[in-house]
Specification:
This is Phosphopantothenate--cysteine ligase 2-like isoform X2. The protein has 326 residues and is of the alpha/beta class. It has helices at residues 6-25, 32-46, 85-96, 141-157, 168-181, 230-237, 252-266, 306-325; strands spanning 58-63, 68-69, 77-78, 100-106, 126-130, 133-136, 160-165, 189-193, 200-201, 224-225, 242-249, 270-275, 282-286, 291-295. The chain has one domain (28-325): CoaB-like (Rossmann fold). Helix content is 37%, strand content 20%. Bound molecules: ligand PAZ.
Amino acid sequence: MAAKNGSEAAEEHTSSAEIRSFFDSAPPLKNSLEITDKLKEFLDKNSLSAGDGRANRIVCVTSGGTTVPLEQRCVRYIDNFASGHRGAASTEYFLKAGYVVIFLYRRGTCQPYCRSLPADPFLECFEFIDESHIKVREPHSEAVKMAISDHQNVVEKGQLLKLPFTTIFEYLQMLQMVATSLRGLGPHAMFYLAAAVSDFYVPWKSMAEHKIQSGSGPLDMSLVQVPKMLAVLRKEWAPFAYCISFKLETDKNILLKKADMALSKYKMHVVVANELSTRNEEVVVVTGDEKVSVCRDKTQVGCDVEDPLIKLLVEKHAIHIVDSCS
Ligand code: PAZ
């Protein structure tokens, strides 16, 4: 391995100090014991396939966006656009492909099997008949039936664990917990990091405790950069797992360059590049060897870009498992 030059070593040193400081100063998760228990129970049940006792493929799908609180007793926060559609749809396709899924999602965002249900106004789907009968109105009855039965199927088999987060502090602590608990699965674990993670945050210690008061002129607040956890995930938390991150840009002229940079800087196996306005139509799967454009099949009703995307990633993961085990 090549020796690190001074600036590389300094960058690495700074970032590990920043990471330590982020975790040391983050408010501890209120339900960390409950999450640990849930993860343990889920992995005890699902690490090996019930059929032949071989290792299962388990994917952690992150979904939705993290918030950045501005006050400790939070009234206001910075948020982002992510709806959680990508994560929810991808979860369905991973389950269909035989994966076990840990769905790390932002509270209140899109959920697996609920995408085809009308969000607004949801209650108009139903008709109250009498105390023991509620009817689903046409034209929603087929979608509701499918959503309920598909969801029930994975819940009964215990193949989907849902873990909700809201803030950047919760998200990164939970990602670390999931990653370290999947370490034993080696290459059979996959990370599919579709959540939009805040780049800047207010450190807990310098955050106002109470609601920030108006009336004293413009708000002057300084945000610090969230340490880049992808490199730590790859190197320390889950070094053998297959790691896929996403790169979103609004300027298509810089998208692929930024994806290439993320690939080499964080040593991801794949970076999925997408542009805000076309993200549900097309993504580009970027690896060290190639850039493959993956599009939604517009000729089929109800098709989404996640269908071919997950098929491609599942193939690549299979190669990673074979290469790692030989
Ligand atoms: O959640 P959604 O379906 O509305 O959007 C998905 C997405 C654009 C957040 C995801 O594809 C993505 O690019 N996530 C990473 C964003 C980033 O670069 O931080």
